[in-house]
Amino acid sequence: MLISCVAYENGKKLADIPVEDISEYVKRPDCFVWVALFEPTREELDEMAEEFELHELAVDDARSGHQRPKLEEYGNSLFAVLQPVEKIKAADGTEELLVGEVDVFVGDNYVLSVRHRTQVGFSAVRARAERERELLKNGSGFVLYALIDSVVDRYFPILDSLETQLEAVEEQIFVRNAARSNIESLYELKRKLMTLKHVVDPLMEAVGKLYGGRVPQVCAGMSEYFRDVFDHLQRLHATIEGIRDMQTTAIQVNLGMINLNETEVTKKLAGWAAIIAVPTLIAGIYGMNFKNMPEYDFTYGYPLSLAAMLGIDLGLYFWFHKIKWL
Amino acid sequence: MLISCVAYENGKKLADIPVEDISEYVKRPDCFVWVALFEPTREELDEMAEEFELHELAVDDARSGHQRPKLEEYGNSLFAVLQPVEKIKAADGTEELLVGEVDVFVGDNYVLSVRHRTQVGFSAVRARAERERELLKNGSGFVLYALIDSVVDRYFPILDSLETQLEAVEEQIFVRNAARSNIESLYELKRKLMTLKHVVDPLMEAVGKLYGGRVPQVCAGMSEYFRDVFDHLQRLHATIEGIRDMQTTAIQVNLGMINLNETEVTKKLAGWAAIIAVPTLIAGIYGMNFKNMPEYDFTYGYPLSLAAMLGIDLGLYFWFHKIKWL
Amino acid sequence: MLISCVAYENGKKLADIPVEDISEYVKRPDCFVWVALFEPTREELDEMAEEFELHELAVDDARSGHQRPKLEEYGNSLFAVLQPVEKIKAADGTEELLVGEVDVFVGDNYVLSVRHRTQVGFSAVRARAERERELLKNGSGFVLYALIDSVVDRYFPILDSLETQLEAVEEQIFVRNAARSNIESLYELKRKLMTLKHVVDPLMEAVGKLYGGRVPQVCAGMSEYFRDVFDHLQRLHATIEGIRDMQTTAIQVNLGMINLNETEVTKKLAGWAAIIAVPTLIAGIYGMNFKNMPEYDFTYGYPLSLAAMLGIDLGLYFWFHKIKWL
Amino acid sequence: MLISCVAYENGKKLADIPVEDISEYVKRPDCFVWVALFEPTREELDEMAEEFELHELAVDDARSGHQRPKLEEYGNSLFAVLQPVEKIKAADGTEELLVGEVDVFVGDNYVLSVRHRTQVGFSAVRARAERERELLKNGSGFVLYALIDSVVDRYFPILDSLETQLEAVEEQIFVRNAARSNIESLYELKRKLMTLKHVVDPLMEAVGKLYGGRVPQVCAGMSEYFRDVFDHLQRLHATIEGIRDMQTTAIQVNLGMINLNETEVTKKLAGWAAIIAVPTLIAGIYGMNFKNMPEYDFTYGYPLSLAAMLGIDLGLYFWFHKIKWL
Amino acid sequence: MLISCVAYENGKKLADIPVEDISEYVKRPDCFVWVALFEPTREELDEMAEEFELHELAVDDARSGHQRPKLEEYGNSLFAVLQPVEKIKAADGTEELLVGEVDVFVGDNYVLSVRHRTQVGFSAVRARAERERELLKNGSGFVLYALIDSVVDRYFPILDSLETQLEAVEEQIFVRNAARSNIESLYELKRKLMTLKHVVDPLMEAVGKLYGGRVPQVCAGMSEYFRDVFDHLQRLHATIEGIRDMQTTAIQVNLGMINLNETEVTKKLAGWAAIIAVPTLIAGIYGMNFKNMPEYDFTYGYPLSLAAMLGIDLGLYFWFHKIKWL
Lengths: 326, 326, 326, 326, 326
Prior knowledge:
Five copies of one chain form a homopentamer. In chain A, the strands form two sheets. Chain A has a seven-stranded mixed sheet with strand order 2-1-3-9-8-5-4, sandwiched between helices. A two-stranded antiparallel sheet of chain A has the order 6-7. The mean pLDDT of chain A is about 90. The first copy, chain A, has about 325 residues and is of the alpha+beta class. Helices cover about 55% and strands about 15% of the residues of chain A. The relative contact order of chain A is 0.08. In chain A, helix 6 packs parallel to helix 9. The two termini of chain A are about 70 Å apart. Chain A has helices spanning about 20-25, 40-50, 55-65, 125-130, 135, 140-155, 155-170, 180-205, 225-285, 300-320, and strands at about 1-10, 10-15, 30-40, 70-75, 75-80, 85-90, 95-100, 100-105, 110-115. The longest helix of chain A is centred in the C-terminal third of the chain and has 63 residues, at about 225-285.
């Protein structure tokens, strides 16, 4: 589906143009065309491939989707795969991460973005770009930057929510009987974290090629901006690694808490078992049928025996209490 | 066993040719010969070695098989070892991964592929190559690409099935009493994953030498295609690492679930033990033989004692239920 | 909030100058201006940006704070983000680490430091710089060094206290019943360690660019000093890794101790259970109602049975004691 | 002990020569001398050092032995340390790995090998070298290759046996009550694996310097052969890492099986305890001495009580059986 | 404290000289001065700094001590920090590792060593250097080598003792009831290993700069000797990593043994509980007060009941013995 198709000149929007005129505008110097597609049909993509003379392999990638983030040079043009991540409510009410895909073809005077499986579009990016005319003069390179920047900025709230989740588990981790829910949360956290990691790390590697050293032609002059995006990705990367590290330790600690709890249960079991078993033994003794058991004839034999049971149990109870078994 | 032996010129099939004529066709410019062998005898391989002037060490490797994927230059020719992976049903009904081997000798105007221990051949590759004439004009380099691409593409469904297996375990991981089967699945998964990893990682390293920087002569002009294969291998690699990471965490989590379950069993044991032990104590007390036990003469002594036992047990039961031990 | 704004010439303080005169002093050769801000308003920062012609992206970073340590070149000027760490008492009496931020803009003849969320300022650094005139002649590069050096020096006592904490746990680790508090301390330690690590490692990477090889203009001639800071950061890094490694092992060991303790509790439970159960069995036997039980008529039947119980229990006790179960 | 001392010319054996004539033959062009020593005395080694003008540090290494594999250049000569590994039967019947050492001095026209603590010699290597005259023309470089190749080839059966050992454990790993022997095997496996790893990895690093890039003079022209050895070492390395990885997982899995087993024992204990405790309670109740217990007078009171006990126990047994506790 | 101050010329000792004359001798070509200090006062160090024109930052490091091993170039001079490790008896009789420090300043014609916190000095190094005149002609570079070599050689016996400790644990690791002492030994071993690692690794990195590639002026011509030291450090490094790896596995295995032991205790508990509980049940049954219990009147009722108890118990005992629970 065609979202928009606009020609720009000298940092200024010229006009919305029909798809057929693209190749014409592309020939003009200082002019570039920015086309946005959403889940295009095979025909739409083929048409674009022809207008912009896109490389067959890149078009194949854009058609099939399900790539990992990457950045490839085809001659003077670039092909970038970005993966926006969005939070969605799953059918069972839990929050899931949805990994979309944006394929961006960038040439000297065109940008073509193809969006798959994402709810949020890039109209905000276009609006920003049209506002910042000075930067828009950099042409397609700036648009690429603005798209990547926008995708990366949307990772931060996702990562923040994972950090919050870790903190929530950390507050519960030494609480008794929270082990099962903690371990479920930690595993869930890990799964989401890995999703994010597999999106951030390859993108960081890709963006690293867009500043310093040899830089693709279309991105020249935007070095400081791409470095800024790279820096954001590095922060995301470092935070992910940090959460991952703590999460690993938290699972270990949780295992320790489970085992500690087991010990405490065993102690309780042992303590109460003793408290019941000892009077049972005494009762057993006074249930013996020897003829010659003088206690049987004592007037207070019975209450005394009960008192003995109670006394011993109280002693045991305080003893177990003192050694923290009960 | 000779599968086929075909000469091509300018991207077009010339003819099936007899083995003896190979050296003749190889001399013609713009012409190249593509030979496919399946588990060749020593003599067949020796004959090829002579026709194509293959290096002794490479022929040794192709003869013995059991290599890991690699890519070696011998002067202007290349020797590549690929390892296709196929799913087979083992005798006991379980699914196993079968690692085959394809040794490919590539020279300026010949390609010799030697296939071992695989069920699926490369006739589809040959058909595709003959269809894509423009690309086939690149000669032996394109054939090498097509072979590698085909082997790599077959890894994806295998990896997908491992991902599915992990997801199946993940759904079971917090279910009670599933620990034994989970841990067996996870170990099995790990074994298959390692098989795939040992096939993908060296191939990725090898293919990385075929684009960018200095590239072997026969692969020149195919850079973007080899980069595409490399990109596929990177995706396989990243997915393998991702599964591996989750699988490690899953084993840890499973260990936690086993220990949690142990605690729950201990709690149940303790609870029911108390429920049986307390009335046993009461019965013991009223089995004592003191002369002077007034309760013995109460009309309702017996039912009252039973009622006491029952009452205490109900109390215990609800208490244990409340603290989630029962 | 403006803390100070001073012009220096040839290693000597010229005067406190008003903000409006900055651009004037900056033009003079051999003269440089050092401005310190604390949590500036948007307007204050904008004014500085104009006076010093700072790059928009760097100003954005300084405005939003919450960066990780880094060092970026913008043309001939540098932008450094430092993160001082301070110990504070949390509301609940525990000690927490507070990560502040200092953004430093360095040009040929100016230094602008912007401090966020820290209690301790840098007046000591300014005092030292004004004392060491020879070094201050190096201009803004020396001031950058002095600021970084001061921030890094403050990490050492923090790290020392973490080392002390580890040692405290190590002394408790083989003590019985200390497992819960040990594991809490170890987790807390890990959290603080990660905080420090995320501050030290990126700074180390950043400072590594300031000596050897190509060095930014403003830092030329200070190589040995920046190498010294780098060396300090390496020591911090190595110590952090060392503590981390021991801490991981300590958690594993702690898990072992918990399980050992569980075994000891089970042994105690088993031992005492036997000591109670055996006389209970004997009492049970002599509570049987067979007509023909000769012991019942023995004069010393009862005391003998008690003696047997006691004797067996003593035997059991010493046996369990010998095998270290009791 | 001198094993052999032979002069070669143009790939052909000239003669066994006495040690004193070595320096004479070494001077002849196209001629080289190959000397083999086995655990030489100090004097033997000193004599060789003089004849071949060996570097003091290398001779020191050869004298003391106990090195790790390495390859060092001393001017135009090479000093290589190889470590053959052999399986031996230890005194207690178990199989141990014996790490020997072969120090090889290689110059333009000499090879001196010094063998320590190995049972198998290199006569097979010499025989092979004398057969392959074409290759032997490469002189000392080929001899070095042949020696390394022979040592590396002997690693494969050792590693195969470790792989077999892992597979043996894997077959036992989910079998009940095999945990102790599994864990012992896994630890033993790890120890042997590390022995092999410490021999393979440094050698791989060393051999990597003998092909591609700048290569020592004496090895020039043998690049493809050294690359072949390197490839073998890479396969060994990859297999070792693979076994190691699986072995780590196997230990974790084993720990899980131990804990699972513990849970199963606890369940059995709980089940049988209930089956014994419930009739004990019933018997206790009918051992009470209340005057007014109508059941006592029932004709079938006794058999009915026994029947109740049996019935409840059967019920319990099937219940526990159903929930898989028994 | 000044230990010695000697001038050398052409590999020969000239004379012990007073500190004041140092600057004079330093000016002579072919002459160099070697000064050794032990825990010098501030004044002593300042005097040296002046005589040798040492860099302020290096002197600061030497004054404060507590550095990690490193090697820094200051113009044409070198500053090296070495850390000798010594075994000492701690107050409580255990062996501890004492990490000392030796700071070495090396210039074209001087060597100044400053020793802190070590018991063993370097007189042996001086003696060796004076013996090996040929090497001493290399001047200060050789002295640096001799000092580093001596420090590194002293690491070997320390590491050997750690290896022995690991082997001692390995022999105990599968022995029952050794878990607590094993885990204590393993933790202790890890601590010492990390101490050694933090001394060896940075030194290895530092020495790696003294051979191959660009080498500091004063070390030129000593390449093969520094490579030899590097090789020793690599062996130390590899051995440390090897011990560390085995130690990690040993802790895991130990955890497995603890859990196995727990299971064995639980099995014993269950077995004996059954052996006691079953006759207790029988005695309970024959303690019931039903009027109509024919067994009560059997002449051999009592001995038969005892026989039944004994018989069942024997059966149980052999059963439990067979399944290895007892």
